[in-house]
Amino acid sequence: MLIGIVGKPNVGKSTFFKALTFQDVEIANYPFTTLKPNEGVAYVRVKEVSYEFGLKPNPKYGFVKGNYRFVPVKVMDVPGLVPGAHEGRGLGNKFLDDLRKANVLIHIVDIVGSVDEEGRYVGPGNYDPIRDIKWLEEEIDYWFYSIIKRNIEKEIRSMRSEKKDIIKGLAEILSGLDIKLDHIDKAFRDIGIGNEDYDALEDQEILFKLSSRIREVSKPIVIAANRIDIDIDVAKKNIDRIKREYPNKMVVPTSGYAEVLLKKLDFEGKIEYVYGDGDFKIVGELDEKEKIALEFIREKILKDFGSTGVQKAIDSAVFDVLGYIAVFPVATDNLTDSKGNVLPDCFLLPKGSKVIDLANEIHTELAKNFVRAIDIRSKKFVGRDHELRNLDIIRIVSQ
Ligand SMILES: Nc1nc2c(ncn2[C@@H]2O[C@H](COP(=O)(O)OP(=O)(O)OP(=O)(O)O)[C@@H](O)[C@H]2O)c(=O)[nH]1
Ligand SMILES: [Mg+2]
């Protein structure tokens, strides 16, 4: 699972990345601070199931905090995009190639409208952030289109002469972009192109439309309406406008700044903060500046918006937008692995995954020698084709 962080320059992408990964990256209030992609590990928040059984978990990766298991996912912060990037403006869009493997993108928008398209500071309220949604997605679509176009030009002749199924053909060509057959199939149906409609692929207008639809289904975008802390009222107005104009988009109000501070103080033992929660507890000595900042975060952000939104943004990306589920495999009825570790694993799987898919994720041998599985909660046997649900605990029995 790879989550890409995208947006124009100087909107808080690297700050957001730091809030997610706690990796020290360069942050500054001018455009093009980030020149090369940053890669790191973030964590999605899943209910900790051990506590239902009165057990203490031993996670093999990630960690437990509060009543949650934080499960690792990869994130990437890329340099800012400007209008015309696909024609080489700004830093161009070369680095977008690093996002080939992304499953979902988070678009960081400066929701208070304080920087223009190029990332220049213009002051809150002086730029309409809704504009970014359209042009930035178009730039990403152009990048996608150029990859698809390049690959199709190479293959179209042989596809035509061999009367190849173009959906399957495209899936092969685009496997490097982590695009599944389902994605392409859906895009073709949405645009109304048939299996052997080779002409459509040579019509650049249709090809752009198709590329854009494939991008939408294979790399959907969550909007992080960021920097809400700068001006709560302007932020709220703009969020409402985005929701009205784009009712189908997932929009999460965020403050990367607030999340970085809460995490830092939590690490320092000054507060107790479960990432993503709507409140924190003061447990250590704070200086005056910290007190004022925390008071502001509690009263103006957490109370109004429910959280800083940073955790919610990646959770929404993985669970709501991609529809992934979290499943806990175990080796014994005592909810342990063979060494006695309690619920050591938590797997993130695409919705619709079956018991056999889980077995395969654990080990291909386990899938090969699969005998049956047990749903620990219901204590019932389930077969290889049983569809898994979120937070299932599954014991797989093999030969
Ligand atoms: N008030 C406030 N400031 C923020 C927030 N997030 C980032 N900033 C500030 O915005 C400026 C830009 O932040 P960066 O994280 O460097 O932005 P970026 O989008 O990575 O910028 P480039 O790498 O240049 O594209 C810095 O001055 C940050 O301190 C936020 O949530 N609230
Ligand atoms: Mg940056």
UniProtKB/TrEMBL annotation:
PROSITE patterns: G_OBG, GTP1_OBG
NCBIfam families to which the protein is assigned, alphabetical: PRK09602.1
Record's protein name: Translation-associated GTPase
UniProt keyword terms in alphabetical order: GTP-binding, Nucleotide-binding
PANTHER family xref list: OBG GTPASE FAMILY, OBG-TYPE G DOMAIN-CONTAINING PROTEIN
Entry GO CC: cytoplasm
Annotated GO MF terms: ATP hydrolysis activity; GTP binding
Native species: Candidatus Nanoclepta minutus
Domain OBG-type G: 1-274
